[in-house]
Amino acid sequence: MNVSSLMESYFKGSPRFDRNLVGHIKESVPIKVPNEKSWDLLEEPEVLQRLFRFEKAPNMVYFLEDVIQLQEQMSHHGKLLIDGLQILVQISTKDMNRVTDLDVEWTKKVDEIYKDVRTNQ
Fold first, then answer.
1. Exposed/middle/buried for 117, CB within 10 Å: 0-12, 13-18, 19+?
2. Rounded average pLDDT over 49-53
3. What's 98's DSSP letter?
4. Is the pLDDT confidence value at 25 over 50?
5. With 98 labelled, which of 2, 7, 20, 73 sits at a CA distance of 20 to 30 A?
6. Mean predicted confidence (pLDDT) in 16-33
């Protein structure tokens, strides 16, 4: 007995997978795929977001160290989510629950850090 025969009764009577369904889901679900070329402005709550990819773990560590140092210098902290060799970075001014000039300045400095790390890869 194979899996498809076990699942046959489960799928009987239910609609088959429709490739057009993916387009429907994409349009109706408010999920934005992170951009790795520039910062995206998300809403509710308002936040700037960018995905950074790395070829080697040491370069990712250098990036993280520099971003953490920047956060301490500016007394302004973002959210850093690590997944494999990529880091999703989000920033906003939490007290105001929106993006401010300080956040934009912070993103420019993070971009410079990334550029420096990438040049040394």
1. buried
2. 96
3. B
4. no
5. 73
6. 51
